[in-house]
Amino acid sequence: MESKVRSFVRKGEVTKTGGAGGGYVQAVGAKPGCHGVSLVSSGLDDLDHILRLRNPLSLIVGGGIPVGGLVMVMEDIEAPHHMPLLRFFMAQGLVHSQPLFFATPLPSPQAFLGTLPAIASRSSGAASDNTKEGDLRIAWQYRRFLNEQQALEERRYRYEFCNDFDLRKPAERSLFTGATIKCESLARGAHLDSLLDHCRVFISNLARYTGEGQLVGRLAFQSLCAPQCMQSCTDWEMLRFLQSLKSLLRVSNAVALITFPATLLTPSMAIRWQHLADILISVEAVLDDNKEMAGMLTDYPDILGFLRIHKLASINTQVPTIPEAAMHAMKVVRRKKLVLERLLFAPVDATSGDSKTGGAAGLLCGRPANASSPLDF
Fold this sequence. Notes:
Layout: E1 30-32, E2 38-40, H1 45-50, E3 53-54, E4 60-61, E5 65-66, E6 70-74, H2 82-95, E7 100-104, H3 109-113, E8 117-119, H4 124-132, H5 140-158, E9 165-170, H6 173-176, E10 181-185, H7 192-206, E11 217-221, H8 235-250, E12 254-260, H9 267-276, E13 279-285, H10 291-296, E14 305-311, E15 327-333, E16 337-342, H11 361-365
Parallel strand pairs: 6-12, 6-13, 7-10, 7-11, 11-12
Antiparallel strand pairs: 1-2, 2-5, 3-4, 8-9, 13-14, 14-15, 15-16
């Protein structure tokens, strides 16, 4: 007698199969989100906060990249501001011991792994306190207890949903020990079909782990449509590759992040790429001679670049998610931490209006400076 199989998954139910439509994934680094999907961190806490989703009750929950989702980052030819997002995405996967697939036009992808950032240490304050109390003699049993507590705290911090990374330090060698990392160089002139086969094999290996041993894989593609990679591929072949990759992600425990220079594509093809993305982000460089922008923003000298949210994921739902703010400023705090902040605009000068009061009411009730009539508001 055949067993009955349900055609739906109850919201909030944890299953053993995983996938974008198969319930929450029980894996390290993944947490339940709304609409029956699991979330993994992008590696940047501020970006996870921006990528928050809403449930049918309009309650903001979670934040991160849905498992089975495709993230695209449009590069800026003026500055490589997309590289920190790519490095954080890859480093966060290594922290959670998640399998990593990396494709880049660089001739040596392994050399790029050495540029991944290290985990920012949280024990600096405790270390300074111990140095201040250096004159005190502590019994060796108590010192051993402190070391065990510190190791436990570091282990807990290691398996947080999102970690803080230090841009000044390279990743620890311990993260690469025993890690599953597959690297492919796009500069060798290989065809996209072979790259898709490698992705299919990488994703199929994730299905071997079930139950509590499930793993969420990460696929990272750097400058996918750059001139130095895949010279023999046409625009339609690239589009077919993206469609096949997205279909593979939908039925697997994996997420993918692709950076691409949109200006090198034709306008019609760039729009097709953007429609295929579940989450679409663009980065822009800051122009030093933009005096108009400098007058509008209060913290313009501290801004490294701009991050714009074009599209948020809507997996397992027909309700689109609208971000609270589309534009964010990229800043580096103390030369080691990347943060995203809302743009802070300078207050408008209300003293230049024709209103007799010369206050803020002059902007609301006064006529424009180029108005032809007093009644033209």
